[in-house]
Amino acid sequence: MSKFLGKSAAALTPYVPGEQLTDRVYIKLNANECPYPPSPGVERALRDAEYRALRLYPDAEAKALHAAVAKFHGLTSQEVYMGAGSDEVLGYAFMAFFDKGDKVYYPGITYGFYPIYAQLCGLEAVEIPVREDFTIAVSDYYGLDGNIIIANPNAPTSLAITPEEVEDILNHNPDRLVIIDEAYADFSENKTVVPLLRKYDNLMVVQTFSKSRAMAGMRVGCALGNPELMAGLTRIKFSFNPFNLDPLAIATGIAAVEDKAYLAETVGKIKATRNRAGEAMRKMGMTVLPSETNFLFAKHPTIPGGELCRLLKAEGILIRHFAKPGIDDYVRITVGTDGDMDTLLEKLGALK
Amino acid sequence: MSKFLGKSAAALTPYVPGEQLTDRVYIKLNANECPYPPSPGVERALRDAEYRALRLYPDAEAKALHAAVAKFHGLTSQEVYMGAGSDEVLGYAFMAFFDKGDKVYYPGITYGFYPIYAQLCGLEAVEIPVREDFTIAVSDYYGLDGNIIIANPNAPTSLAITPEEVEDILNHNPDRLVIIDEAYADFSENKTVVPLLRKYDNLMVVQTFSKSRAMAGMRVGCALGNPELMAGLTRIKFSFNPFNLDPLAIATGIAAVEDKAYLAETVGKIKATRNRAGEAMRKMGMTVLPSETNFLFAKHPTIPGGELCRLLKAEGILIRHFAKPGIDDYVRITVGTDGDMDTLLEKLGALK
After folding, report:
1. Within an 8 Å CB–CB cutoff, is residue A125 touching chain B?
2. Are β-strands B317-318 and A221-224 bridged in parallel, bridged antiparallel, or unpaired?
3. Residues of A (257-296) whose Cβ lies below 8 Å from B
4. Which of A103, A117, B146, B309 has its CA 20 to 30 A from that of B250?
């Protein structure tokens, strides 16, 4: 470690993304990427991009993208904040809505980046345990003395709480900001809590284009909420890296959000494949949680999670394992194409 | 302001980028953008980009881009850190190499983002005044009790210190990190201090693809330094937003850095135009500092800076004015094409 590293930077435990191996061709079910390409409109946006314009700084306000996302959700542009992936949005939210020493509450099993942001901002992270079946007990979130962040549906559990349960948390914490991270909401039955935004000034929704819109490469995510909250994120952006979206991210982002039919088609295919593959795995004796996401959180009857991960990797299939107490026996398997999942099922069957 | 905004976020004074006006066609000399397009290789990289691959996360380590930049500078990949523009690199440097309450030293006239990063990280910012002629007195930087950041050449003054002067500062602060921000170094006589990197473990160089490489749109910047320093930046990246470079930024960045001939040609043209335009402005009675950048820092004999800015804007030319004591009479004028500068000179002449 560099002798110039600050004490707080030295204390960080950085995030470990899913492996991006290139030593052979893998069926990649380890990063919750979409198995289908982005909307054909994204290809056109890319082909139409004017390379000569790259000499200029992008629109730091990304006005056209804000307008497109606002239109999709029936909001105004002032109720939208666009970031370079939802990770950047979340990072800025932690910087904007917390001061050093503040508490932040989130479920004990959830997205691994929340504790890292908390550490980065010097917050006291309070993990609220999930139930033994991995569900979230909403009453555990009543009257808290810090802001709350909940991935809904949650990762890697794949389980969701209902909009009514989100409202319950909002009503019990009127003076606390409640951030609902909806990275996987398009795959859930209840979809988004965006319709609650104008009813609750303490609600902020975070979404990403990386999953249902197949745009993980382009780094586009957003926050949705009242204009004051969005202005808080903008304030951090303009104090850190104002030009966070390049013109290609803006153009392809607009194309992606405008193609509602393609989104519905992609999500429909993934949900059908998910339900079929989950059912087949259950028939094999595996425990598979009822997923509302584009991945399956599953446990093999005899093979521990880490071992299952290694065995499938040797067979050319990458899945994800989290060596964390409580979920150590489980693996997270992204829903691929029907063909991907057939291969997975075949390999899983051969392991028995 | 949102009631949920943290106290430290509320106290920030965010950066104000140069205007991006679209109400009419302007000659845009206000953001130090390159008047020429990026290398033709960038266009090819964009055309060859595989849209279907955008469904996947990018290589979080951007290994191919690191290798290309390392090769350009005669360094190893471990001596390179690639960021989403040099603003992101600088922001991460402030997060990595300082703790709250630490001092950071920089010239009293310099890039307006340094005080903002200092504020964001809760540092004590100490501005060391420049001389009356805007030059930096190196001896003012001896034996400081905090890390140092110097834009070299400096902005908006357009003046540079020599590599020997940088060494002098390094030698007088062996236990302090010295960050040399070389956004404009390609336009200077002495170019970069990269050759000093292996001699001084307390030196870090920051560069951008936004100026000499005409890639402001694509958000590519880098730090160069010893592997431990680079690992410090990587540590922050993986604790904040690991996928900071999309595959198009990576591909176009590689194309840009590999085209050395185009860089030399572009820089040569801009320097020739700069010197000619600067001389012509001096003949008009303007004060023009001897620029080692792609902009001119200039004072009109009778018209104050803000007023000059407004008058030229009415004539369809955007330049930049900083309403800051000491430089209030000056304007910063980006060097455009010969045609741009001829129009500028004509309009300036008509103002007299």
Report:
1. no
2. unpaired
3. none
4. A117
Q: Are A14 and B59 inside 8 Å of each other by CB?
A: no
Q: How far apart are CA A282 and CA A288, in angstroms?
A: 6
pTM of the predicted protein model: 0.96
Buried b (16+ CB within 10 A) or exposed e, A94-130: bbbbbeeebbbbbbbbbbebbbbbbbbbebebeebeb
Interface with A, mutate which of B1, B51, B335 (most A CBs under 10 A): B51
Model confidence at B346, in pLDDT bands (50, 70, 90)? Answer: very high
Cβ separation B243–A37 shorter than 8 A: no
pLDDT above 90 covers a percentage of chain B that reads 91
What are A319's two structure tokens?
A: 């899945």
CB A160 within 8 A of CB A116: no
- Closest C-alpha among A106, A91, A203 to residue A154: A106
Residues in chain A within 8 Å Cβ distance of B197: none
Smallest CA-to-CA distance from A249 within A60, A17, A30 is with A60
Strands A287-288 and A221-224: unpaired
**In whole angstroms, what is the distance from residue B349 CA to residue B312 CA?**
11
Long-range contact list for B47-53, CB < 8 A, 24+ apart? B48/B251, B49/A46, B49/B247, B49/B248, B49/B251, B51/A37, B51/A38, B51/A42, B51/A43, B51/A46, B52/A37, B53/A217, B53/B247
Chain B neighbors of A20, CB-CB under 8 A? 57, 59-60
The model's confidence at residue A352, banded by pLDDT at 50, 70 and 90, is low
User: By CB neighbour count within 10 A (0-12 exposed, 13-18 middle, 19+ buried), where does A6 fall?
Assistant: buried
Three-state DSSP at A90 gives helix
CA distance B257 to B243: 21
Q: Give B16: exposed, middle or buried? Use CB within 10 Å, 0-12, 13-18, 19+.
A: exposed
Backbone dihedral angles phi then psi of residue B127, each to the nearest 5 degrees: -90, 125
What are the pLDDT digits (tens) for A154-176? Answer: 999 999 999 999 999 999 999 99
Give B-chain residues touching A248 at CB under 8 angstroms.
Answer: 46, 218, 246, 248
**Residue A73: how many other CB atoms lie within 10 Å:** 18
What is residue B18's predicted lDDT score, i.e. its pLDDT?
75
**DSSP label at A18?**
P
DSSP label of B320? B
pLDDT for the residue A21: 77
For chain A, the average pLDDT equals 96
User: Could you give the 3-state DSSP secondary structure of residue B221?
Assistant: strand
Q: Which residue of A has its CA nearest to B98?
A: A6
Tokens representing B234 are 């990587």
Task: Say if residues B245 and B220 touch (Cβ distance below 8 Å).
Answer: yes
**Among A226, A206, A171, which Cα is nearest to B3's?**
A226
Say yes or no to pLDDT of B21 above 80.
no
What is the DSSP pairing of strand B27-28 with strand B317-318? parallel
pLDDT band of residue A86 (cuts 50, 70, 90) is very high
Q: How far apart are CA A257 and CA A245, in angstroms?
A: 15
Is the CB of residue A231 less than 8 Å from the CB of residue B2?
Answer: yes
User: ipTM score here?
Assistant: 0.96
Strand order in the sheet with A80-83: A80-83, A221-224, A203-208, A178-181, A147-151, A103-107, A124-128
The secondary structure of residue B209, as a DSSP letter, is: S
- Please give the structure tokens belonging to residue A29: 């079910």
CB B92 within 8 A of CB B121: no
